[in-house]
Protein backbone atom coordinates (compact mmCIF):
# COMPACT_ATOMS: atom_id res chain seq x y z
CA UNK A 1 0.00 0.00 0.00
CA UNK A 2 1.34 3.43 -0.89
CA UNK A 3 1.10 5.50 2.29
CA UNK A 4 3.01 8.57 1.16
CA UNK A 5 -0.01 10.71 0.29
CA UNK A 6 -2.47 9.52 2.89
CA UNK A 7 -0.08 9.33 5.83
CA UNK A 8 1.73 12.61 5.39
CA UNK A 9 1.40 15.47 7.83
CA UNK A 10 -2.20 16.34 8.62
CA UNK A 11 -3.64 19.53 10.09
CA UNK A 12 -7.12 20.30 11.34
CA UNK A 13 -8.79 23.23 13.08
CA UNK A 14 -12.16 22.66 14.77
CA UNK A 15 -14.24 25.45 16.34
CA UNK A 16 -15.69 25.58 19.81
CA UNK A 17 -19.48 25.48 19.85
CA UNK A 18 -22.37 26.62 21.99
CA UNK A 19 -25.37 24.31 21.81
CA UNK A 20 -29.00 24.42 22.94
CA UNK A 21 -29.04 28.24 22.82
CA UNK A 22 -31.74 28.20 25.47
CA UNK A 23 -34.83 26.85 23.77
CA UNK A 24 -32.98 24.74 21.20
CA UNK A 25 -32.33 21.79 23.51
CA UNK A 26 -30.47 19.08 21.52
CA UNK A 27 -31.59 20.94 18.39
CA UNK A 28 -29.54 24.07 17.69
CA UNK A 29 -25.94 25.18 18.04
CA UNK A 30 -23.53 27.79 16.76
CA UNK A 31 -19.80 27.70 16.03
CA UNK A 32 -17.49 30.12 17.85
CA UNK A 33 -14.33 31.71 16.50
CA UNK A 34 -11.86 29.92 18.76
CA UNK A 35 -11.14 26.24 18.84
CA UNK A 36 -8.90 23.19 18.77
CA UNK A 37 -5.91 23.04 16.41
CA UNK A 38 -3.99 19.84 15.74
CA UNK A 39 -1.01 18.90 13.61
CA UNK A 40 -0.31 15.19 13.22
CA UNK A 41 2.42 13.05 11.69
CA UNK A 42 2.77 9.30 11.52
CA UNK A 43 5.39 8.26 14.07
CA UNK A 44 7.10 5.28 15.67
CA UNK A 45 5.22 5.79 18.95
CA UNK A 46 2.35 7.96 20.15
CA UNK A 47 3.46 11.36 21.42
CA UNK A 48 1.69 14.63 22.22
CA UNK A 49 2.94 18.18 22.63
CA UNK A 50 0.15 20.38 23.96
CA UNK A 51 -0.26 24.10 24.60
CA UNK A 52 -3.14 26.42 25.45
CA UNK A 53 -5.97 25.71 27.85
CA UNK A 54 -5.70 22.59 30.00
CA UNK A 55 -2.41 21.75 28.28
CA UNK A 56 -1.40 19.17 30.87
CA UNK A 57 -4.64 17.25 30.46
CA UNK A 58 -4.60 17.53 26.66
CA UNK A 59 -1.02 16.30 26.58
CA UNK A 60 -1.60 13.01 28.39
CA UNK A 61 -1.13 9.85 26.39
CA UNK A 62 -3.23 7.74 28.73
CA UNK A 63 -7.00 8.27 28.82
CA UNK A 64 -6.75 10.83 26.04
CA UNK A 65 -10.12 11.22 24.33
CA UNK A 66 -8.61 11.99 20.93
CA UNK A 67 -6.19 9.07 20.91
CA UNK A 68 -8.60 6.55 22.42
CA UNK A 69 -11.31 7.45 19.91
CA UNK A 70 -8.83 7.38 17.02
CA UNK A 71 -7.54 3.93 17.96
CA UNK A 72 -11.02 2.52 18.53
CA UNK A 73 -12.28 3.67 15.13
CA UNK A 74 -9.32 2.10 13.35
CA UNK A 75 -9.76 -1.11 15.33
CA UNK A 76 -13.51 -1.24 14.61
CA UNK A 77 -12.86 -0.86 10.89
CA UNK A 78 -9.97 -3.32 10.83
CA UNK A 79 -7.34 -0.78 9.88
CA UNK A 80 -3.79 -0.77 11.23
CA UNK A 81 -3.30 1.62 14.13
CA UNK A 82 -0.77 4.19 12.94
CA UNK A 83 1.03 5.82 15.90
CA UNK A 84 0.87 9.61 15.76
CA UNK A 85 2.92 12.54 16.95
CA UNK A 86 0.38 15.25 17.78
CA UNK A 87 0.92 18.95 18.32
CA UNK A 88 -2.16 20.41 19.97
CA UNK A 89 -3.15 24.01 20.56
CA UNK A 90 -6.35 24.01 22.58
CA UNK A 91 -8.43 27.15 23.11
CA UNK A 92 -11.63 25.40 24.30
CA UNK A 93 -12.25 25.23 28.06
CA UNK A 94 -12.91 21.65 29.11
CA UNK A 95 -16.13 20.68 30.85
CA UNK A 96 -17.74 24.09 30.45
CA UNK A 97 -20.33 23.48 27.74
CA UNK A 98 -18.26 24.85 24.85
CA UNK A 99 -18.10 21.66 22.78
CA UNK A 100 -14.68 20.40 23.85
CA UNK A 101 -15.63 16.72 23.63
CA UNK A 102 -17.34 17.17 20.24
CA UNK A 103 -14.21 18.86 18.87
CA UNK A 104 -11.98 16.13 20.32
CA UNK A 105 -14.06 13.30 18.88
CA UNK A 106 -14.32 14.95 15.47
CA UNK A 107 -10.57 15.48 15.50
CA UNK A 108 -10.11 11.78 16.25
CA UNK A 109 -12.49 10.81 13.44
CA UNK A 110 -10.70 13.08 10.96
CA UNK A 111 -7.35 11.57 11.98
CA UNK A 112 -8.73 8.05 11.56
CA UNK A 113 -10.20 8.89 8.16
CA UNK A 114 -6.87 10.32 7.02
CA UNK A 115 -4.38 7.84 8.45
CA UNK A 116 -6.72 4.85 8.09
CA UNK A 117 -7.76 5.75 4.54
CA UNK A 118 -11.44 5.33 5.41
CA UNK A 119 -12.73 7.63 2.69
CA UNK A 120 -15.71 8.89 4.70
CA UNK A 121 -17.80 11.84 3.51
CA UNK A 122 -19.43 14.49 5.69
CA UNK A 123 -22.60 12.46 6.27
CA UNK A 124 -20.62 9.46 7.48
CA UNK A 125 -18.41 11.60 9.71
CA UNK A 126 -21.43 13.24 11.33
CA UNK A 127 -23.05 9.84 11.85
CA UNK A 128 -19.96 8.50 13.59
CA UNK A 129 -19.55 11.64 15.69
CA UNK A 130 -23.20 11.60 16.75
CA UNK A 131 -22.94 7.92 17.69
CA UNK A 132 -19.91 8.63 19.86
CA UNK A 133 -20.87 12.05 21.24
CA UNK A 134 -24.64 11.71 21.60
CA UNK A 135 -25.26 15.37 20.74
CA UNK A 136 -25.93 16.00 17.07
CA UNK A 137 -26.23 19.77 17.44
CA UNK A 138 -22.69 20.16 18.78
CA UNK A 139 -21.04 17.89 16.24
CA UNK A 140 -22.89 19.47 13.31
CA UNK A 141 -21.95 23.02 14.34
CA UNK A 142 -18.34 21.97 14.93
CA UNK A 143 -17.99 20.20 11.58
CA UNK A 144 -20.10 22.53 9.42
CA UNK A 145 -19.70 25.89 11.16
CA UNK A 146 -22.29 28.65 11.43
CA UNK A 147 -25.68 28.31 13.10
CA UNK A 148 -27.13 24.83 12.66
CA UNK A 149 -30.42 23.09 13.33
CA UNK A 150 -30.48 19.30 13.35
CA UNK A 151 -32.94 16.45 13.05
CA UNK A 152 -31.83 12.87 13.69
CA UNK A 153 -33.25 9.84 11.89
CA UNK A 154 -31.75 6.83 13.59
CA UNK A 155 -28.00 7.44 13.39
CA UNK A 156 -28.34 9.81 10.44
CA UNK A 157 -27.90 13.52 11.18
CA UNK A 158 -29.80 15.93 8.95
CA UNK A 159 -28.41 19.43 9.42
CA UNK A 160 -29.29 22.82 7.98
CA UNK A 161 -26.91 25.73 8.49
CA UNK A 162 -26.74 29.45 7.91
CA UNK A 163 -24.04 32.04 8.48
CA UNK A 164 -24.62 33.93 11.74
CA UNK A 165 -25.06 37.72 11.49
CA UNK A 166 -21.62 39.25 10.94
CA UNK A 167 -21.97 42.00 13.52
CA UNK A 168 -23.18 39.82 16.41
CA UNK A 169 -20.60 39.04 19.05
CA UNK A 170 -20.60 36.91 22.17
CA UNK A 171 -19.30 36.67 25.69
CA UNK A 172 -18.71 33.24 27.14
CA UNK A 173 -18.79 33.58 30.92
CA UNK A 174 -16.86 30.79 32.62
CA UNK A 175 -17.24 29.93 36.31
CA UNK A 176 -14.39 28.44 38.30
CA UNK A 177 -15.74 24.88 38.37
CA UNK A 178 -16.56 22.64 35.41
CA UNK A 179 -19.61 20.39 35.06
CA UNK A 180 -19.94 17.01 33.39
CA UNK A 181 -22.63 16.73 30.74
CA UNK A 182 -23.82 13.47 32.27
CA UNK A 183 -24.45 15.18 35.61
CA UNK A 184 -26.31 18.03 33.93
CA UNK A 185 -28.36 15.56 31.87
CA UNK A 186 -29.28 13.53 34.96
CA UNK A 187 -30.99 16.57 36.48
CA UNK A 188 -33.68 16.63 33.79
CA UNK A 189 -37.17 15.21 34.45
CA UNK A 190 -38.71 12.43 32.40
CA UNK A 191 -41.97 14.33 31.81
CA UNK A 192 -42.89 17.97 31.25
CA UNK A 193 -46.07 20.02 31.60
CA UNK A 194 -47.74 20.68 28.26
CA UNK A 195 -47.52 24.46 28.68
CA UNK A 196 -43.73 24.23 29.10
CA UNK A 197 -43.40 22.18 25.93
CA UNK A 198 -45.55 24.62 23.96
CA UNK A 199 -43.58 27.60 25.27
CA UNK A 200 -40.33 25.99 24.16
CA UNK A 201 -41.73 25.12 20.74
CA UNK A 202 -42.73 28.74 20.26
CA UNK A 203 -39.30 29.98 21.26
CA UNK A 204 -37.26 27.51 19.21
CA UNK A 205 -39.40 28.17 16.13
CA UNK A 206 -38.38 31.82 16.47
CA UNK A 207 -34.71 31.03 17.19
CA UNK A 208 -33.69 29.92 13.71
CA UNK A 209 -35.61 32.78 12.10
CA UNK A 210 -33.97 35.32 14.43
CA UNK A 211 -30.54 34.13 13.25
CA UNK A 212 -31.57 33.85 9.60
CA UNK A 213 -33.18 37.29 9.44
CA UNK A 214 -30.70 38.97 11.81
CA UNK A 215 -33.51 39.91 14.16
CA UNK A 216 -31.57 40.48 17.34
CA UNK A 217 -34.54 41.97 19.13
CA UNK A 218 -36.21 38.55 18.97
CA UNK A 219 -33.42 36.66 20.75
CA UNK A 220 -34.56 37.56 24.26
CA UNK A 221 -37.74 35.58 23.65
CA UNK A 222 -36.33 33.05 21.20
CA UNK A 223 -33.74 31.87 23.75
CA UNK A 224 -36.20 31.46 26.61
CA UNK A 225 -36.30 27.91 27.90
CA UNK A 226 -38.40 25.76 30.22
CA UNK A 227 -37.03 22.34 29.23
CA UNK A 228 -33.51 22.12 30.61
CA UNK A 229 -32.20 25.35 32.15
CA UNK A 230 -34.52 25.54 35.19
CA UNK A 231 -33.45 22.05 36.22
CA UNK A 232 -29.74 22.78 35.84
CA UNK A 233 -29.70 25.98 37.88
CA UNK A 234 -28.55 24.08 40.98
CA UNK A 235 -25.31 23.15 39.20
CA UNK A 236 -24.99 26.40 37.23
CA UNK A 237 -24.90 29.35 39.66
CA UNK A 238 -24.35 31.87 36.87
CA UNK A 239 -27.69 31.01 35.25
CA UNK A 240 -30.07 33.02 37.48
CA UNK A 241 -27.62 35.92 37.49
CA UNK A 242 -27.14 36.12 33.74
CA UNK A 243 -30.58 35.39 32.30
CA UNK A 244 -32.03 38.76 33.44
CA UNK A 245 -29.30 40.55 31.45
CA UNK A 246 -31.00 39.66 28.15
CA UNK A 247 -32.52 42.77 26.63
CA UNK A 248 -30.23 45.26 28.37
CA UNK A 249 -26.66 46.59 28.09
CA UNK A 250 -26.55 45.55 24.44
CA UNK A 251 -27.09 41.89 25.36
CA UNK A 252 -29.61 40.40 22.93
CA UNK A 253 -29.99 36.98 24.52
CA UNK A 254 -28.59 34.79 27.27
CA UNK A 255 -28.49 31.05 27.83
CA UNK A 256 -26.40 28.24 29.21
CA UNK A 257 -23.67 27.30 26.79
CA UNK A 258 -24.45 23.68 26.05
CA UNK A 259 -25.19 21.89 29.32
CA UNK A 260 -23.33 24.59 31.25
CA UNK A 261 -21.99 25.73 33.58
CA UNK A 262 -20.71 28.50 31.25
CA UNK A 263 -23.11 31.12 29.97
CA UNK A 264 -23.44 32.45 26.42
CA UNK A 265 -24.37 36.10 26.04
CA UNK A 266 -25.08 37.29 22.49
CA UNK A 267 -24.18 40.93 21.87
CA UNK A 268 -25.66 43.27 19.28
CA UNK A 269 -22.20 44.33 18.05
CA UNK A 270 -18.63 44.96 19.14
CA UNK A 271 -19.49 48.45 20.34
CA UNK A 272 -21.65 47.23 23.23
CA UNK A 273 -18.89 45.02 24.63
CA UNK A 274 -17.81 47.45 27.43
CA UNK A 275 -21.32 47.89 28.83
CA UNK A 276 -22.10 44.19 28.49
CA UNK A 277 -18.85 43.30 30.20
CA UNK A 278 -19.62 45.69 33.02
CA UNK A 279 -22.99 44.00 33.51
CA UNK A 280 -21.21 40.64 33.79
CA UNK A 281 -18.70 42.08 36.24
CA UNK A 282 -21.53 42.74 38.67
CA UNK A 283 -21.63 39.01 39.31
CA UNK A 284 -18.60 39.61 41.53
CA UNK A 285 -21.01 41.15 43.99
CA UNK A 286 -22.23 37.58 44.44
CA UNK A 287 -18.69 36.44 45.23
CA UNK A 288 -18.49 34.31 42.13
CA UNK A 289 -15.19 34.12 40.30
CA UNK A 290 -15.74 34.31 36.55
CA UNK A 291 -13.70 34.64 33.36
CA UNK A 292 -15.08 36.44 30.34
CA UNK A 293 -14.13 35.17 26.89
CA UNK A 294 -14.98 37.63 24.12
CA UNK A 295 -15.52 36.05 20.73
CA UNK A 296 -17.45 36.08 17.50
CA UNK A 297 -19.41 33.44 15.66
CA UNK A 298 -17.63 31.40 13.02
CA UNK A 299 -18.83 30.64 9.52
CA UNK A 300 -16.16 27.97 9.35
CA UNK A 301 -16.44 24.45 10.62
CA UNK A 302 -13.63 21.93 10.37
CA UNK A 303 -10.76 23.17 8.27
CA UNK A 304 -8.28 20.53 7.22
CA UNK A 305 -4.66 20.92 6.15
CA UNK A 306 -4.47 24.59 7.04
CA UNK A 307 -1.68 26.37 8.84
CA UNK A 308 -2.18 26.13 12.61
CA UNK A 309 0.10 28.85 13.91
Give keywords:
Alpha-Beta Plaits; 2 domains; single chain; Ribosomal Protein S5, domain 2; 32% helix; 11 helices; four-stranded antiparallel β-sheet; disordered N terminus; alpha+beta; 309 residues
* Beta-strand proportion: 25-35%
The helix-strand sequence is EEEHHEHHHEEEHHHHHEEHEE
Judged by helices, strands and strand pairing, the structural class is: alpha+beta
Spans of at least 5 consecutive residues whose pLDDT stays below 50 are 1-6
- Total domains: 2
Approximate shape: globular
Number of helices: 11
* CATH fold name of the largest domain: Ribosomal Protein S5, domain 2
Largest sheet: 7 strands, mixed
CATH class of the largest domain: Alpha Beta
Span between termini: 32 Å
Could you say what the CATH architecture of the largest domain is? 2-Layer Sandwich
Amino acid sequence: MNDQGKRGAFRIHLPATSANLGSGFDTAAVALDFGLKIEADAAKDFAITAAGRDAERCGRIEENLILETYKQILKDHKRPIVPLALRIMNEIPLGMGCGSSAAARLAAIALAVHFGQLGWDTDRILEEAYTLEGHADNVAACWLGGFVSVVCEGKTVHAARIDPPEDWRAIIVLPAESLSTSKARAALPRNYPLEDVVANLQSVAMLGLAFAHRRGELLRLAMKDRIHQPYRATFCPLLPLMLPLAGQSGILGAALSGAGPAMLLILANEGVRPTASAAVERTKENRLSVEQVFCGFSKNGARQNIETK
